[in-house]
Please model this.
Amino acid sequence: MAELALPETRYARSGDVNIAYQVLEQLGDGERRDLLYVPGMVSHVEFFHELPGYTDFLRRLSCFARVTTFDKRGQGLSDRISGAPPLEVRMDDVRAVLDAVGVEQATVFGVSEGCAMSALFAATYPQRVTHLVLVSGFARFTSAPDYPHMWSYEQIAKSIPYWGSGVSIRIFGAAFAQDPANQKMWARGERLCVSPGGYRELLETNAQIDVRAILPQLAVPTLVLHRSQDKAVQAANGRYLAEHIPGAKYIEYEGVDHMPFHGNVEQLCADVEFFVTGTRRQDESLDRVLATVLFTDIVDSTTRLADVGDAAWRSLLDRYESGARKLVEQHRGRLVKTTGDGVLASFDGPARAIRCAQALRTLAGQTGVATRAGVHTGEIELRGEDVGGMAVHVAARVMAQAGANGIAVSRVVTDLVGGSGLNFAGAREVTLKGVPGNWQIFDVVD
Model:
């Protein structure tokens, strides 16, 4: 089984500036399409793969289109510049990336602040845009007497002293902001995307964004998507866009999520796919997803059962399973099932799966038993409430490589959690029973 590979970062030339971009090739044999993902105010094409759900989201879009992502000038892996460029200059980076990839026409998928740039590009170069998708967007960056839907600049500027601390997760990643580990990861992302001074310059420049005048001129098919309780950009902004773009279709979902790769991702992607292709993927095609699988079991459970007796053992298992269910939920995973003396759970992010395994180990110790765990990321099959597929079997075999109170992971996992603060040791190449090829296994080090 081949390891999962993240897309390679390349550079497009836009004037004197290098723009970092990545390309995910289209899956399947359907009609060849292209989709350009225009990020929000800040981005980092490599780090964003560490954010829960981001890679899965792009892979879902790649089911019907080749997906290109990029970092706008001055941030992420693109060239740092002096000052923050105006929207018109940044818009030309879109053209440069499309040219570098060799794309004549594409669906332009704008997110948050990227919606204004996407709309301006579609109005300027309509011949290069087949469809326009605007998610969590706005027409004006700050509020005005005739546009009360956004924050005032004074309110937004209050965030400047806190840039790099991760507190912005409370509005941009509200659904998983409760986990301190997520805020720490988010803080690192803020620092990687842009410096505090660069962030201040971005806000000052973005305060000038107002694309209301060009909305009636848009002549490409447009889909506007928004969450009803979006904490960063009120849904009224999405409604405004849809009302002022000729023929635009508007869909409003329940939820607080601002990023498209959080929340009801499958529904959102399915709606985008239908808008772009005119068809909806059959259910059986959607039953295979990328996920991180966690297996745990209790070490020497048969011996422990003989020591304590049936009644005490059942009581111990009940306490462990109840606590395990809560811990999996806290780490945004799904408890698929209990296995008699362990659990099987799936996660949309490998770092959270490992941290959940660590928490489960602590829980087991408090219950008086030792556990071992295995973590692997791969494609799984959804079978109602159950899961299957090779990735599940691999995770079980990886678990068998762990010692008492140990957590073993595959090389795929270590590659995906780089920079998360997790440490590994004990690298070894092994064969896994019933699984083809040789596999590199690592132990999690606390």
